[in-house]
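Thread: Newbie trying to understand structure tokens

Hi all, I'm a second-year student working on a class project, and my supervisor (Dr. K.) asked me to get a predicted structure for one chain before our next meeting. I've only ever worked with sequences, so writing a 3D structure as a token string is new to me. If someone could post the tokens and maybe explain what I'm looking at, I'd be very grateful. Here's the chain:
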Amino acid sequence: MGQVEGVVTLDGEPLPGVVILFKPEVGRQSRAKSDESGKYKAMYMIDEPGVKAGPNCNVTVEWDIDESGPAIPAEWGPSAGKKMDVKAGEVNEFNIDMVSKK
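---
Reply by user tm_fold:
Sure, no problem. This is what the structure looks like when written as tokens:
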């Protein structure tokens, strides 16, 4: 397991209320939700922080069921996502800097 945390922004501004999913090729996914300042910390289980270590962890961003806001850029959506290499036993800082299509 590795710890994953960071900040989510859209067009340079913090984006609160979005869910970040970390899906490894094999095994359980981890989840995070950004706070008012866009900060998040991934949780493997409700009381256990972390993300399964290894390469090719697919990262996606979406609005939580009770939240809404500007469109999430397609490259961060469920059908695309970004890849991340999670290092075991350390804090992996993964800032998500999204840019909306104008």
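A couple of things are worth pointing out once you decode it. The chain has a mean pLDDT of 93. The longest strand covers residues 54-63. Feel free to ask follow-ups in this thread.
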